[in-house]
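Researcher: Following up on the earlier apo prediction. This time include the ligand. It's flavin-adenine dinucleotide, with the SMILES given after the sequence.
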Amino acid sequence: MISSSQISRSSQVCLVCSMRGQSKFISPATVTIFSKHLSPAANRNLPVVWKSHRDYSYRTRFEGSLPAGWPAEASISGRLRLIILGTGWGSYSVLRCIDKQLYDVLVVSPRNHFLFTPLLASTTVGTLEFRSIIEPVRNTGFRDSAHFHLSYATSVDLAERSLQVTSVLRPSLSYTLQYDKLVIGVGAFSNTFGTPGVEENAFFLKEIQDARRIRNRILSNFELALQPGIGDAEISRLLQVVIVGGGPTGVEFGAELYDFIEQDVARLYKQQQGLVRVTLVESNQILSAFDARLRSYAEKKITQRKGFSLIQSSVTEVTPNSVKLQNGEVIPCGLVVWSTGLAPRQFTQAFDVEKNARGQIVTDGYLRVKSDPGGNAFALGDCADIENYSLPCTAQVAERQGRYLANFLNKGCPIQDMGMLAYIGRYEALTDTPMARLHGVPSWLLWRSAYLTRLGSWRLRMQVPVDWTKTLLFGRDISRF
Ligand SMILES: Cc1cc2nc3c(=O)[nH]c(=O)nc-3n(C[C@H](O)[C@H](O)[C@H](O)COP(=O)(O)OP(=O)(O)OC[C@H]3O[C@@H](n4cnc5c(N)ncnc54)[C@H](O)[C@@H]3O)c2cc1C
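Model: Understood. Below is the ligand-bound prediction.
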C-alpha cells in the first residue's frame, strides 16, 4: 500500500511513493501496474491515482488539504482534462479552438463526424453527396487516439466530476470518465409534440442517415410508381410529399425537392413530372425568424410553383400512408418529412439541473451550468439557454458560443456574426444580416459562398464545389442503394 507520495509540477509528473517501506519513483507507465493497489480510503491526504477506461492520462485528486504550491487539479500529464460531449456545431467549435497544450481533450459522441447541417437538405436529393458535408473529428488531431469515444453520455455527477457513458458499438458496455472541465453540446431532437404516428412513420432531417433514408424513399417511390399494376390513386400517393414545419429546414428541403423535380425528374422520370405534389404544412408563418418582407417573398415563390402548396394548419396524426390535418382533411402521401421545432434529448431530460420551460439547461452568461456549484460544467448550443439572454437555436449561435467558450478556457478565437441565410430554390435565397437584407440570385451567390467559407476543412471546401459542378453539368445521381 502506498504510504506517502508527492507530485512535482514539471511537465512530466512523477509519483514518489513508498511501498512496503521502500521509497521509489513510479512513472505513469508503472502506475498502471500499481494503480489497483491505490485506494481513495488509504490516506485522505494522499493523491488518489486511477486509470479510467483506455485512458493513459492519469489523474490525481487530493482529498485532504494540499501542500503549498500544489495544483488543486492536475493530471499526470500536467494538463487539466476537458471532456466535450457531442461533435455538433458548438462542441466541434470548442474542439477546433481549444488549446490542446493546456488540456487533455476527450470527446464523447455517438457520431464520429461533424455535420454541416445547413447543406444537409442538399444531400436528400443528391445535389451534394453525403460525405461532402461531414468531417471526421479525428482529423482535428487528438493527443491520444483513445481520446475520442464513440459513445453517448447518459448521466453526469457534478459533485464527483464524473460522467457515465455507454458505447454505441456495444450497448452493454458502460463506463465512467472523470473530468476537470466538461462541455455539454448534445444538441436537441425534433419535437413531435406527442403527435401520434410521427416517430413511426415520418422522416426527420437531423443526421446524415436521415438524409440517406429520405433520398432512398424518394427514389423508391418514383420507381414503384412506374411499375405495372400500380393504380392511379397509388401513383399520386407515392408522388405526394408532405413537409411538416415551415422553418428553414422544411423550406430548404422543399427548395431542394423543387430543383430536383424541375431539373432531374423532368429528364429521368418524364411521365411523372406533372404528378409530383409537395405540400408544406405550417401552423403559423413560414420562416418566422426572418424579416417580414423576405418572408412574404419566400411565401409568394413557393405558392407560385406548379405542384407546390402551402397549408396553414397543424398535423394531428401521421399514418404509414397519410397525414391528418386539424380540420379532418387526410392527405395520402408517400413521404412525410417532420421538422417542427426542437425538444430536449434524453440525456438533457435526465440531467438533474435547472432547466427552462423548453427543457434546456440554464447557464449563466459565461455558459456555466447554473446548478454546478464548482463552475466546471458548461453547456452550449441547442441544449442550453443563457439565463435572461435567450439566443436562437442556430448553427451560428452554437458555433459562436463554442468559439467564445474556447476563448474563455484558453483565450484567443475571434467571433464573427454572419446573420441568417436560407435557400428557397431555383438559384434564389434569402439573406437577413445586420448589414443587408437580400433575396434572389445575388443572395443565392452569397448563400453558396458564405457556406463554402464556413465548411470545416479544405477537403470539404474542394468537395462541395465539385458536387455542385457535377450536378449542374450531369444532373443528380439517382442511384438507389
Ligand atoms: C437540416 C438542418 C438545416 C439547418 N440549417 C441551418 C442554417 O442554415 N443556419 C443555421 O444557423 N442553423 C441551421 N440549422 C440548425 C443548426 O444545425 C443547429 O442549431 C445546430 O446544429 C446546433 O448545434 P449544437 O452543437 O447545439 O447541436 P448539434 O449540431 O445537433 O450537435 C449535437 C451533437 O451531440 C451529439 N450527442 C447527442 N446526444 C449525445 C449524448 N448523449 N452524449 C454525447 N453526445 C451526444 C450528437 O451526436 C451531435 O454530435 C439547421 C439544422 C438542420 C437539422
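Model: The CA atoms of residues 260 and 385 lie 37 Å apart.
Researcher: Noted. I'll compare it with the apo version next.
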